[in-house]
Amino acid sequence: MAKSKMTVVAASVVAALAVGYPAAACYLGSQIEKAHADVRAMIAAQPYLKIASESYERGLFSASETTTIEIPAALFQPVVTETDEAAASAEKPKAEPPIRITIKTAIKHGPLPGFSALAAGSETSTIEFDEPLRAMLAEAFGSDQPFDIRTTYNFVGGGRSTFASKPFKLVLPGDTPESNANLSGEPIELVMEFSKGLADYTVRGT
Questions:
Q1: Which one-letter DSSP state was computed for residue 115?
Q2: Phi-psi bin for 200: left (phi > 0), alpha (psi -120 to 50), beta?
Q3: Are 134 and 99 in contact (CB under 8 A)?
Q4: pTM above 0.85, yes or no
Q5: CA pair distance 22, 60, nearest whole angstrom
Q6: Is the preceding peptide bond at 22 cis, omega within 30 degrees of 0?
């Protein structure tokens, strides 16, 4: 009799998990999708950023997002003086195309995302750059994927993101090989703790 009762209890627990876990994953997945929509809205509200394309595909236990952002090339060009402007107006140079950055994110829904943690969800992101910026970064960092971005969401809408970069070495050419300038940097890691809707956040780095 005792064994029979234990079997019934075990079956009841399995049945509850079979129903409850997908429901929890569905709810938490919808909350993470909303968090991503809030971030895209914040990006779109910036006058110097433009979302060129976006897609979000959500399943029951996972999701994926791809967002392409455009940054005006003029932001990275030197300020033109009146004298320079008069000289340039005669040449009428073509406007530089915007810099395009594509962020791809693979998301796992909780409450056990990837069965590796207890959380509302976790995700990893990669950044893809258009040429010639991609080639420049690959030369400097030794990889065309120099950044590692990971985020974990808690059950109250906030979370923790880490941004890590590889060390870099860059050679700035001078008039002669002897006058080349060498720039280098150590790996860095930034950690951001944020609340729901990014209402509050703190960033610390190493």
A1: G
A2: beta
A3: no
A4: no
A5: 7
A6: no
